[in-house]
């Protein structure tokens, strides 16, 4: 490819989906060669039909080809997450349950992948161990075995240590839920429960704590989970198993 060669190109969606990562892709092209011009046709969060033009590019052909794969990797990964998130959000309608992501993200990509969830209509759960206390199964096992104290005491201890943070505790049964509620958590995570079990737990929590369902949630069962009245449903698959959206760069 001669250094003087110039070209025009388009990034095209080969499959329908929700677009995410256009500003990042543009930054990649510009970092490789500042003479590349980029026009974003579909902004982040927009739905693309198969065949839709996502971006229009022009400039040195070498720069376009050098940046192509990195730009597409970012676009395809984030658009795939946004697309899967949108499918979950639409699947729970008309129920008001929020679709949440988790910390099951690609190392180094958490902020971007959680941004993609937002572009798909979902909401962000914790970004790390610093912005909410979540008392999970291993914490509970240690607490019960070493301290021999109740789940309510675990909530109280977390509240005393971190009074400014939300406190959430995972429970596996109604008995554990009744115990935990005595500590007045902000949220309870109802783990791997059937819809009937979830419904009973939601009634127990009414006015006492907000509820999050998690574990084994798929597009096939998410509406039934939402129908139980939970406030939120967390889905690790949004970030750890979303298929990349099929996008390509084509010279024109």
What does this structure look like?
Helices cover about 40% and strands about 20% of the residues. The chain has two domains: about 5-85 and about 245-250, Aldehyde Oxidoreductase, domain 3, CATH 3.90.1170.20; about 90-240, Alpha-Beta Barrel (TIM Barrel), CATH 3.20.20.70. α1 packs antiparallel against α2, α5 (about 150-160) crosses α6 and α6 packs parallel to α7. The longest helix is centred in the N-terminal third of the chain and has 32 residues, at about 60-90. The chain has helices at about 20-30, 60-90, 110-120, 135-145, 150-160, 175-180, 195-205, 220-225, 235-240, and strands at about 5-15, 15-20, 35-40, 45-50, 55-60, 100, 135, 165-170, 185-190, 210-215, 230-235, 245-250. The protein has about 250 residues and is an alpha/beta fold. The strands form three sheets. A six-stranded parallel sheet has the order 6-11-10-9-8-7. Strands 3-5-1-12 form a four-stranded antiparallel sheet, with helices on one face. Strands 2-4 form a two-stranded antiparallel sheet. β10, α8 (about 220-225) and β11 form a beta-alpha-beta unit.
What is the element layout, followed by pairings?
Blueprint: E1 6-13, E2 17-18, H1 22-32, E3 37-40, E4 47-48, E5 53-60, H2 61-92, E6 98-100, H3 110-119, E7 133-135, H4 137-147, H5 151-161, E8 167-171, H6 174-181, E9 187-191, H7 195-205, E10 210-214, H8 222-226, E11 232-234, H9 237-240, E12 247-251
Parallel strand pairs: 6-11, 7-8, 8-9, 9-10, 10-11
Antiparallel strand pairs: 1-5, 1-12, 2-4, 3-5
Helix pairs in contact: 1-2, 2-3, 5-6, 6-7
Features:
alpha/beta; 9 helices; six-stranded parallel sheet; TIM Barrel; 252 residues; four-stranded antiparallel sheet; Aldehyde Oxidoreductase, domain 3
